[in-house]
Amino acid sequence: MNIRHEWENGRLPIINGILYENGVIDWINISYDANFNRSISGVSRKCIDDLISRRELLFSSIGTSYQTNDISNNIRVYCGGGSYGGDGYVVVESNINLKLLWIAFFEESNPFEKIEIIGDRIIVYNNLKEKWTFEINNPVNLSIT
């Protein structure tokens, strides 16, 4: 599967987690407390090829809301929403060779609308004003506030 081709054609795989360029997925379980605050409740590792072989991989059409270029980290970052109202995504690619580094896609995050890069962290804000913070080099280390 050519994820770059899908990205360039306005589609991303519907996963709940982080997809890396090599096809590995860190599937992230998000739970909610009584006040609907989100938190990470577990991570499991999957492979996109396994989802394809079981015919479990679906795609969402996406629209980009915001993008930024970070020279100090040599990355470009995009965010937006998917074809289902609750989808949100973040795409990080290298400024050097435009290689996709990782994609975060969540079915219930709501669309992401703004990006800030502070040091080694990417902070995206969704339309609920939640702040999702990813480490650039270890995006599975995620916090939601």
Write the layout of secondary structure elements.
Layout: H1 3-8, E1 11-13, E2 17-20, E3 24-32, E4 38-47, H2 48-53, E5 59-70, E6 75-82, E7 88-94, E8 100-106, E9 112-118, E10 121-126, E11 131-135, E12 138-144
Helix content: under 10%
User: How many E strands?
Assistant: 12
How much is the average pLDDT?
Answer: 94
Distance between the termini: 34 Å
CATH top level class name: Mainly Beta
Task: List low-pLDDT spans.
Answer: none
Structural class: mainly beta
Give me the CATH architecture, please: Beta Barrel
Kindly give the count of domains: 1
Helical stretch count? 2
Biggest β-sheet, characterized?
A: 8 strands, antiparallel
Strand content: over 45%
Shape: globular
> What topology, given as strand order, has the largest sheet?
1-5-6-7-8-2-3-4
Return Rg in Å: 14 Å
